[in-house]
Design goal:
It holds the Pfam family adh_short. The chain is α/β, with parallel strands linked by helices. Helices cover 42% and strands 17% of the residues.
């Protein structure tokens, strides 16, 4: 598994933030990468001509997209990162539409992709990583239903692993929960909102959070996880600047 050169990797939500960093890391590790996003993005050339990045412009939340791209590219690894940026405001200032936005995007995307992975199914030895959020553990009172949607992503990843075991499929599913980081658009928005709520500056709030998780570090961590022996992979991990920590 340490050699990713022949293992096509689909990264869903690769145009920005952690998804962009993960797609780049897989290409630099030698994988042919299919970068799925609604909008095109710029990627640097992988070092030493290692892997490649091919962009697929598509809305990952649309039901037919997952099956079509899985059939077209026959991936060995699928990394699901895509989701909506939540509207940051207290509960009473949300509408049901803004509160439920991440249920109708993040959970929907994970559901469609996990379902199609099981139905196809992917080849033996395949790896599936769903990138959720540390908010699934700690909550997020200013982001509506975001934390609950991310917890559900973690749950259904576990359900998919159970179904794979029952069907005798050699596919490893795991969820990765990154801690909030100001290097992403979502993290910057959250940092501003929580700093204002606490009556401190954004810089002070970010300092309280400690060393930020970078897109490059997230990419390296997910590559490391996919390279690990399947029997050592836990159902879920917290991801911080210090790396991956197994969740109980």
């Amino acid at each position: 598994m340490s050699d990713l050169s022949g293992r096509t990797t689909i990264v869903v939500g690769a145009s920005r933030g952690l998804g962009h960093g993960i797609a780049t890391a897989f290409a630099e590790a030698g994988a042919p990468v299919i970068a799925v996003s609604r909008t095109p993005s710029e990627f640097r050339e992988p070092a030493n001509g290692a892997g490649t990045i091919q962009q697929e412009i598509a809305d990952a939340s649309e039901a037919p997209v997952a099956g079509a791209l899985i059939d077209r590219h026959e991936p060995a690894n699928v990394i699901v990162v895509a989701g909506a940026n939540p509207l940051m405001r207290p509960l009473q200032h949300h509408t049901w539409e803004s509160f439920s936005a991440n249920w109708n995007t993040d959970v929907k995307i994970a559901f469609h992709w996990l379902r199609e992975i099981l139905l196809k199914p992917l080849r033996p030895g395949s790896r599936v990583v769903v990138v959720s959020s540390g908010a699934a553990l700690a909550g997020s009172p200013l982001s509506g239903g975001y934390a609950g949607s991310k917890a559900t992503q973690r749950f259904i990843t576990g359900y998919a692993q159970d179904e794979a075991h029952l069907a005798g499929l050699d596919i490893t599913f795991t969820a990765v929960l990154p801690r909030i980081t100001p290097v992403t658009e979502l993290g910057r928005s959250a940092s501003r909102a929580y700093a204002a709520r606490s009556g401190i500056t954004e810089e002070q709030y970010s300092k309280q959070m400690g060393e930020p998780l970078t897109a490059e570090a997230a990419g390296a961590a997910v590559v490391e996880l996919v390279r690990a022996q399947a029997n050592t992979v836990a159902p879920g991990y917290l991801l911080t600047s210090a790396g991956l920590q197994k969740l109980r």
